[in-house]
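Page 37, continued from 36.
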């Protein structure tokens, strides 16, 4: 059975469905049942949305209602109040668009905890997300059970951020690093990707060595090419040769 954007599994009577979907619904005996508000998932990709809904619901025991866009959730907000909102940042998202959408979502959430689920692990972006007001930032490189516990932590009033990314940001700050050769052209992660590209390493190997998802590597490569106006990876390696003074 499909209700809105949520898929309800199992055999339920009409009154059982009503009690499950509506807070404080009355049972057949007349007692009021306190039904926890659902986790709202905003994920534009249909396949990922369905998989995440089933995984989150099955692993957390919490009802999950999924929407493809913020606008779709806003239309149903009055009838689908949220306990926690998980906002997915995909590898194809643009930084500027994401910041605008995140700001809009946080304003509309009106105090409801917001968690970002992201293909990106850039420390600067994570810090900006927390400065905007999110309570959790979960990279898609994490195992599902860790992501579930992170959501539970946020729902309990805590805050979650990937320690590895924040430690990298702290180490870069302590060394006074802002990018390649003291410029602000590239982030530290982009610099690491460039070094790997110059060695001819494929995305899969770069992702493994830098502990990030392959989709994140592709985004970094695309952004590097855009900054350099390079047409391919070979041009990136050639054009950055001077920045590294010929060192690998």
């Amino acid at each position: 059975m499909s209700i809105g954007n949520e898929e309800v599994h199992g055999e339920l009577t009409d009154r059982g469905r009503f009690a499950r979907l509506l807070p404080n619904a009355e049972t057949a005996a007349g007692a009021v049942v306190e039904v926890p508000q659902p986790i709202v998932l905003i994920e534009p990709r249909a396949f990922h949305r369905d998989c995440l809904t089933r995984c989150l619901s099955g692993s957390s025991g919490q009802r999950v209602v999924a929407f493809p866009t913020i606008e779709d959730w806003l239309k149903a907000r009055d009838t689908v109040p949220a306990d926690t909102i998980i906002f997915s940042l995909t590898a194809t998202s643009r930084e500027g668009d994401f910041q605008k959408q995140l700001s809009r979502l946080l304003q509309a959430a009106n105090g409801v905890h917001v968690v970002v689920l992201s293909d990106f692990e850039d420390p600067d972006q994570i810090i900006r997300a927390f400065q905007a007001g999110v309570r959790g930032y979960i990279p898609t490189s994490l195992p599902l059970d860790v992501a579930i516990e992170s959501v539970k932590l946020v729902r309990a009033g805590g805050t979650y951020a990937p320690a590895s990314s924040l430690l990298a940001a702290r180490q870069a700050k302590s060394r006074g690093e802002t990018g390649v050769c003291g410029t602000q052209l590239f982030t530290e992660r982009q610099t690491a990707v460039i070094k790997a590209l110059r060695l001819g390493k494929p995305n899969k190997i770069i992702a493994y060595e830098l502990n990030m998802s392959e989709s994140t590597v592709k985004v970094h490569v695309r952004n590097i090419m855009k900054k350099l106006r390079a047409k391919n990876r070979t041009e990136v390696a050639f054009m950055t040769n001077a920045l590294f003074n010929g060192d690998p």
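Confidence is low (pLDDT under 50) at residues 1-28, 177-184. Flag for discussion at group meeting. The beta strands are 2-3, 6-7, 25-26, 32-33, 39-42, 64-67, 84-89, 113-118, 136-139.
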